[in-house]
Amino acid sequence: TPALKPDNGSAAVGSNPPAGSGSDNPGLKLDPTSPEKPGSTVKQPPGKPPVKPPVRVTVNEKDPNALLRQGAAYERTNNWETARQLYEKLETIKGYAGIAQFQQAWVAFRTNDNQRAEDLAKKAISNTAGAWQFRSKTLYGDAMYGKGLYQRAKDVYLNLRGIAPTAKLKAELATKIKNCNKGLKLPNVNDGL
């Protein structure tokens, strides 16, 4: 019996693979004159993060907690389009429209689509209460800031600072107000901070 040798993926030892299959396919080999090396990454231009193609999701579409968990998982991997699709499904569940709108606004903000973030945050403000409404208003201000509308963002942050439930949130809002002042070229304004 002949000794077994590595066969680079062919079906049987010593058999000839069909033409065009496996590593024998010249169309699959790297061009030696190409400047790109195997495993190298192509640099993306600054600005918007790369858009990842949507991935088919198998999640119970009637379970809002499952949709939120899965959406958060996609956010952690920067798969914004799939997360957005899940949050759109969440929006159709009774009682979750505001939370879903906030999450969609967050995705839009993270992908530098400040106009969409503003519109969705505005919807979320009217469809939420409590902490979700506070977060929606903050995100609305962040979208304004992202669009360069520093005075409008500052007004939102000043109003929120007066009702912020924790010292940590007040401090975060104070930092955002200072950044707005820098954007407005008002470095010595105190604003009660």
Question: In words, what does this structure look like?
Answer:
With 193 residues, the protein is mostly helical. 52% of the residues lie in helices and 0% in strands. The protein is built from seven helices and no strands. It has helices at 64-76, 80-91, 97-110, 114-127, 130-146, 150-163, 167-183. Mean pLDDT is 80; it is low at 1-42.
Helices and strands in order, then pairings?
Layout: H1 64-76, H2 80-91, H3 97-110, H4 114-127, H5 130-146, H6 150-163, H7 167-183
Helix pairs in contact: 1-2, 2-3, 3-4, 3-5, 4-5, 5-6, 6-7
Q: Any low-confidence stretches, pLDDT <50, length ≥5?
A: 1-42
Helical coverage, percent range? 40-55%
Count the beta strands.
0
Largest sheet: none
| Strand and helix order | HHHHHHH
Rg: 26 Å
Compact overview of the structure:
It is built from 7 helices and no strands.
Fill in the keyword field for this structure.
mainly alpha; 193 residues; disordered N terminus
